[in-house]
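User: Can you predict the 3D structure for this chain?
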Amino acid sequence: MRELTGAALRKVDMEDATADSRLFLIGSAASQAMSPGLWNPLLEQLGSSWTYEAWDVPAEQAMTRVRGRLLDRDVVAANVTMPHKQWAAGTADSSTDAVQLSGACNLLVRQGRRLHGHNTDITAAAVLLGNRYQRHALLLGAGGAARAALIALDRNVGKVSITDRDPNASGDLLHLALDLGIDAQAVTWQQAQDLASEASLIVNATPIGKGISDGPAWGDGPVAADALVYDFVYAGHVTASIAKAREAGATCVDGWDHLREQAVAMVPLLGLDGAADSLLAESLDGLKSRH
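Assistant: Here is the predicted structure, written as structure tokens:
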């Protein structure tokens, strides 16, 4: 299957795109996300006619209409968030190795009447995790974000414990970990909370923390001082998971960090001007200051 570079993708698309082209964010709570507030100022500064729009798509909605809309000539691409990342991987006509390996896709780029799938979550997580070896990674949640973290670890981990409110989701992610040759186990939510104090990496891949009254994703227990806490949630407040980790002296990666890095990874895939990287930083600073 032939892979296209970002520049080639944009060349194909711009030949048949209309003047006013759209980027979408698709998810069950897309309208609550801050991505439009990040991308629209950047696009305006670049002098682009593109707009970035949130599109709420409930979990139970039939996705045939969604795919059909993404193939319209005014669509450039769509970011995909919970709970549709696995659907996006399945609906892509072609995709990167990372998407095929993880079974999750967070970016669909239109190429004529075809959709090409990417996973910039994996790219971002790999950058933010670095090459640090993790003796024990605890994954809270087993959806697309957790899959990205697992792939980004790239076997640079001793053991992985996986939990999710849905045991079937935990089981699916466990199978992926075992297929990758990783020593992994699926545990209950309570067992995961008990394991948090010994983990060197805790990944919150759940919505816990979006609410200002939410506690730490792993409950009230302690975390190790040498731990890395990676919280995919970004909000207008410091999440309790990040606050607790900071109190313990742990290293923290928050949802804002992840939002920045996955956006940076999108720039070449959309064929945007090189100035977009610096403008992204400015746009993100402005967004954070307003929240």
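The chain has two domains: 6-118+258-289, 123-253. The radius of gyration is 19 Å.
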